[in-house]
Amino acid sequence: MPAKIRLQRHGKKGSPFYHIVIADGRAPRDGRFIEKIGTYNPITNPAEINIDLDKALTWLKNGAQPSETVRAILSYKGVLYKSHLLKGVEKGALTEEQAEAKFQVWLQEKEAKIEAKKKGLTDAERLERKKAFEAEAKVKEDKAAEVAKKLAAELKLEQQAAASENASIETTEEVPADATEDAPADTTEETSTEA
Hints:
Strand content: 15-25%
Order of helices and strands: EEEEHEHHH
Distance between the termini: 145 Å
Strand order of the largest sheet: 4-3-2-1-5
Number of strands: 5
Low-confidence stretches: none
Structural class: alpha+beta
Radius of gyration: 44 Å
CATH architecture of the domain at 3-94: 2-Layer Sandwich
CATH class of the domain at 3-94: Alpha Beta
Helix content: 55-70%
Mean pLDDT: 81
Shape: elongated
């Protein structure tokens, strides 16, 4: 049975980390392997892939079959493209220099795309945080305005209550004071006239 290029799972539950390995097709997924040629971390964005390009090319030439996921990883990293270019060199369609130049141009374009994606992700995260901060600030301002309005209303009620209380105290103080002053004076006058 030919060798397979496949992923071997490592990492904790819920946070996988994979080794890219060459294994016998009959071996279990996380079992024995012939050689480790790289790693794959799908948790990061974009995914972090480290692979030994030369070893992967050698194993592909020797007939190792990649799994679907590993095929996508090899395509993403340019291993399959380089293999295609090397087959063209073997057939005489390209020289080695032309193949290497094409591969370097492809690598530069790919790196530019990856950097653009990273920058886009950081810009998007920054915009998200900015929007969240602005929304939070608006909520805080609204709450502060509500609290200020409630305090002003309570203060106004207290002032009105104090003013009405003062007015009632003044009216109650004035009325009995006049009545008590008039009453004793009248009684003394009446008593003196009678005597």
